[in-house]
Structures are given as C-alpha cells and as structure tokens.
Amino acid sequence: MAIKWTRPLLALATAVAAGSWGAGAQSAPPVGEWRYIGGDAQHTRFSPLDQITADNVATLEVAWTWRGDNFGPTADPILRSTPLYVDGLLYTVAGERRSVAAIDPETGETIWTYREPHTTRWLRGMRNNYGKGVAFAEVAGRAVIFYTSPAFFLHAIDAKSGEHLENWGTRVPLPGFPRSGVIDMLPDLVKDWEPWLTSGYKYDPDHGIPSDPKNGARIPEIGRVKIDIAYGGSCTAGKRDDIDMYARVMADAERAGKRVADGVKFYLQFGSQDVEAYAKARGYTELFARTGVQVIKPGCGACIGCGPGVSDRGDQVTVSAINRNYKGRSGPGRLYLASPLTVAASAVSGEIVEYEDGMFAPRK
After folding, report:
1. Domains and CATH numbers, the chain
2. 271-300: b or e for each residue (b if 16 or more CB lie within 10 Å)?
3. Could you point out which of 40, 117, 250, 267 has its C-alpha 20 to 30 Å from the C-alpha of 154?
4. Global pTM?
C-alpha cells in the first residue's frame, strides 16, 4: 500500500502552500486544495488544474513513495483512502486501525501520525481498514481533522500539531485515550435501540456492543418462514468461494427446472470487480440471469440501507448473507442472517430452508 507523488505536482504543492488565499469558505476551497473526499462540498471530484496534460503525462516521474502497509498488527496491502490536501499538507488514513497521518507533499515526509489505543471492540470489528479517509473542517478558525475509527470512536485532531482538541467531546475511560477530543459514538446509537435496552447488558467502553452468538437458531427450529427478499454477496459474502456456492445452488435448481420463486427477489452483489470478472469467466452471470437472480455491481448496498435489496415495508422478510441485522439496518422489515447456500436455496424455495444436494429434483 503506498501513495505515489509525481514531480510536476510538486511545483503545484509548493505554490498552494505559499499562496495567500486565506482560509476560504468550506463550500469553495482554495484553488488547488482538496478539502473533501470528493474534492468539494458538492463532490464534483474536479479541480481546475492544468499542469498535467496529454502532452506531458507520459513524462511523469515518481518523486517519492509513502508506505502505509505497516500501520497495524499485520501488513495490509490495501489503500482505499483518498487523501485530503489542505494548507500545504496531505491527510490520510492507513492500515487496519485507520491510523491518521499528515504528510508533506513536497518531500513525502510524515509530519505526524495518530494511532488509536487498542480495544476489544476494534479487535472484533467487521470493518477494520476500509477507511475512505478523513474529514476537514474549521472550528473557531482552527483547522481540524475528523475521523471515525473502526471501533466507532470519533476523533477531532488539530490539523497542524496532530494533538486532539481541548474541551471537545467526552472523556473515554480507557488507557491511552486523550483527555478530550474524542467521542464514543456507541452509547448514543444504542440509547433507544430495543435489543440493547432489553438485553440486560451493562455498557463497557472496551467491548462496546457485545456480540451474542447465542441469538441464532437451526433452520428447523424457526418454523416455516416465507421470504420476500434474498440477498447474497456484499463485501461479507461476495468472495469467489461464496459466488461458487450461489452458483452451485442455482445450477442445481436449473437442472430441476426451477428458478427464483414467484414473489421473491434474489439480489446478488459481487464483493469486488475481480470477483465479478471471475463469475463472468466461469459462466455464472449467465446462469444467474437464466434462473432469475438480479446481479448488482460491487459496492456498498443493502448492508448499509441503500440500493436494491432493502425492504420498504415492515411486513417484508429478508434472508441475507450480509454481516449485520440491526433493527432498521437494511429497511423496516425482518431480516435473517444466513449462509450463501441457505440464501440461495431459500430464494428458490420461497421460504427459509437448509440446502441439500439435489433437493429441487422431483421426489420419487
């Protein structure tokens, strides 16, 4: 994982740092700056710069490389962050912990970093790494970097010094956390959440919301549960071996002359472009089309409550291979978490069932 900076941009970076644009309005950042992940408040992803052209792009050279693969307990080769460029510095996150770094764009030197102290809730986090970057704002004339960690702490850090803001946020009663400049976001999120209120748990800032593996059941124990939506894939269950399982079930159904049940919508989202290419190469996408599966491009979707697969009525029932079924997370309906095999078999059967080889063939 690395950020590479090309030589023609160095002159631009120096000019921006030495310019006299002032703070500027946050909706209209100074020319050359990139204060939002999308460039500006409207996320136009555009900057009116002209140093790199069709005539000189082939002559660009790497001026420096900033490595971020050691910001965590294991080497992480992935960098999804879009760095911000504000007042002469680059700001990004790196590694499984989303450590924050300020970088000199002229030399590639690391100016400051911040690593959140280790917590149990980080250790069992489902979205470690996966940081798209940081946010920038001016607070009382002070440049501030905001970021949310995988453990669901919001940090406010002085953009120049790397120190947390004083008299901001609430004290986190855990070793290593700063005295201010942090907000634990979980208490506010669960304060009116019925499963939490009735759980009997006492809040622990180290553990956060405790997982409860006991809150599950074998399929025969839940009775007959008709479904309206089946959702497979996403980043959780959209890997190559997961797609193999969906295809295995749908091929079995096709051999028996069956497809997705009437009244059921089966959505399948690839976990990455690589997985999508893999599915196409193996003929899976044609199989899915023939058997009534609606394929979705890689990206965030029903897991975060957007796109196809989200229930829109409280009486709808979904069986899904996503990683969470918090109330309302994927619409107002009921949501059951299940394996890829169960999701696909249920889509064909119209109700939640356990998959068995040859289950769709006529009984003799």
Report:
1. 2-189 (2.40.10.480), 219-349 (3.30.499.10)
2. beeebbebbeeeebbebbeebbbebbebee
3. 40
4. 0.62
